[in-house]
Amino acid sequence: MQREQILKEARSIQEWIVERRRQLHRHPELMYEEVKTSQLVRETLDELGVAYRSPIAETGVLASIGDGDGPCVALRADMDALPIHEQADVSFRSEVDGKMHACGHDCHTSMLLGAARLLKEHEDEIQGTVKLLFQPAEEGGAGGHRMSEEGALENPQVERIFGLHVWPTLETGSIGACEGTFLAAAGFMEITVRGRGGHAAMPQYTIDPVVAAAKVVTELQTIVSREIDPLDSGVVSVTTIHGGQASNVIPEEVRMKGTLRSLTMEGLQGLQQRVQEIATHVGTAHRCEVSVEFPGHDYPPTVNDRSLWNKTREIAGQMLGDDNVLEVPPVMGGEDFAYYTERVPGCFVGLGVRNEAVGATYMVHHPMFKADEEALPIGTALHVNFALESLRELATD
Ligand code: NI
Questions:
Q1: What is d(CA 337, CA 345) in angstroms, rounded to the nearest whole number?
Q2: End-to-end Cα, the chain, rounded Å
Q3: Which residues surround ligand 1, an ion (CB under 5 A)?
Q4: Any idea what the Cα angle at residue 126 is, between residues 17 and 19, rounded to 5°?
Q5: How far, in Å, from the CA of 252 to the mean position of ligand 1?
Q6: Ligand 1 centroid vs 264 CA: distance in angstroms?
C-alpha cells in the first residue's frame, strides 16, 4: 500500500532530514530575519531540482512540484525561532546566544524539505501541482498572512492545504487534532498606566501608577471568570509589568503587555473591548490615565475542515495504527496557519515528538525543549501522502 511505502521511503532518508534539521537548529533566526534558513531551503531545493519563487514575504520560499497547473494542493512549514536561550543538552545546541528553535520550526522546515525530496522522486505520479510554503514569522509576525497576501495560494489556485506542528504532549508515533476549531484566535495588548511620580515617603504629592496597575491586573481577571460563559473559552494573561527604578521613588508610569485568546474572532474582539473599558476605568478610579493598545497581527482561529481531518486520520491510521491517531481537544495556542484556512479548506495536526527515553518531555517555548527526531520521517510521510492522495481525489472530482 502506498501510504506505508511512503513512510518507508521517508524513514530511508531520515538521516538526510535530521542533518538539515540540526543545521537549522544550530543557527536559529528570529521572525523576518530567516536569511540563512531561507538560503538552506533554496540550496536544498536547487540540489533536488525543485523550482521555487523567492523572496516572498521577505524571507519566504514558495516551491512547486508537478506540472504547474491545477488541481493544486499546498503543504506548509514555518521557519522562525524564538528569543530564548537554549538550555537543552544536545550536541547541535543553538550557536546563537539568546535565540533557539524552541517551537520546533526547524523540524517543520526539514520535514517539508524531506517531502520535497520524495515528491520530486514521485513527480510522474503528480497530476497537478504541489506547492510547498516555507514561511517566515509565525511567532507573532503573521508571516502566513504575508504569504497569502503575496499570492502563495494563487496561480494555480490552492484547493487544500496541510500543515503540522510538533506536539510535546503526544508520544512519538502518534498524531492528534480535531475537526473544526483546533487552535485559538490570538491577539496581544499593551497597557500604559500614567500617574505622577515623586518621593515614595510622601505619596500624597504623587499619583501612584504602581497600585493602579496592580488593580488593573487583578480586575482584568474577572473578564474570564465572571463575564464569559463558563462553557466558552477565553484567556487574558498579563505577561510583563515594568515600572520604576528605585525603592524610594514612585514612578511616572507602569507599562504592561499581555495576550488574549478566544476560540472565535468575535470572542477575541469582545475581550479587547472589555480590557479597554476595565483598564481605563480602573485607572480613572485611581486618578491615573490609562492607554490600551492592540498592536495588530491578531491571528484568526485555525479551523480544520472535517473531511480533510478524516482523510488525515485515515492516512495516519494506516501508517501508525488507528490507536495512534488521537482526538485532541482545541488548545488556546495561536497559529498563523489560520490565515490559510481562512481562505481554503485545510488540516493542521499535532505530530507526537514526546519520548522520555531521549529526554523529549518539555513543552515548546521552554529552554529545555527537545523533539524526538524519530518523528521527523512520520511528518514527511504525512505531507507526501496528503498531497498525493488529495491531488488524485481532486483530479477525479
Ligand atoms: Ni510553533
A1: 11
A2: 22
A3: 103
A4: 5
A5: 37
A6: 20
